[in-house]
Amino acid sequence: MNKNAHINVSVEEKTKEEVDEILDSLGINMSTAIDLYLNQIRLKKGIPFEVKIPKNNIHNKTKDLAEALNLTGGKTFPKKFNKIISLYARGDIDYDVAIYAIKKEYSNV
């Protein structure tokens, strides 16, 4: 296949240097790596890896949920709530799911 299309991109120099080293150890050059990436996009009909906004700081998320728990009137909560808080803090469940699970557990206590 004749390669005659050109892509001109700007990247951070340090990133390029680090990637060049990695690609060199793999035995491929930047052009081949980009060609592989573009072909994966074509085959997958999208970016070939998950692209999402980074999770919030775990400490802040834990604090948010703890504040929500305090709205229950300062009652002590069962230790099983720690699992819900942990799942939320890691971003495995969202805030609404965490609150729902807590309310459900409170009704079972």
Automatic annotation (TrEMBL):
Domain of life from the UniProt record: Bacteria
GO biological process: regulation of DNA-templated transcription
Stored Gene3D superfamilies: Met repressor-like
Transmembrane segments: none
InterPro entries (alphabetical): Arc_rbn_hlx_hlx, RelB/DinJ
Stored NCBIfam families: RelB_DinJ
Identification of the protein by name: Type II toxin-antitoxin system RelB/DinJ family antitoxin
